[in-house]
Design goal:
The protein is mainly β and about 90 residues long. It contains no helices and 7 strands. Strands 1-2-3-4 form a 4-stranded antiparallel sheet, with no helix packed on it. The termini are far apart.
């Protein structure tokens, strides 16, 4: 008998803060943004209100403030090809 495990990683983009080790940012292909302040032991959903289902394609953690990140998103799955750029302070 063979046991096969499929591991699904829901994150599309991932970055660690360059100024605070263990502060992790993750974005998914369904528009969610999560932050971990304890090296991935727990995660908090910090998705900005009103953000429709999008693909978070890039996250750039601020080099000046650990709680700030910039991210790019797209809604190409819904035939919306407008680029979206956001900033979050969590």
């Amino acid at each position: 008998m063979t046991l096969q495990l499929n591991i699904i990683i829901p994150f599309f983009t991932f970055v660690e803060s360059s100024i605070e080790p263990g502060l992790l940012w993750a974005g998914s292909d369904d528009g969610l943004i999560h932050i971990s302040r304890n090296n991935g032991e727990s995660w908090e959903n910090v998705t900005p209100r009103g953000l429709n289902e999008t693909m978070i394609s890039i996250i750039d953690a601020s080099h000046h403030d650990a709680g700030t990140a910039y991210f790019a998103a797209t809604s190409y799955k819904f035939n919306d090809f407008q680029p979206m750029i956001y900033k979050t302070n969590n």
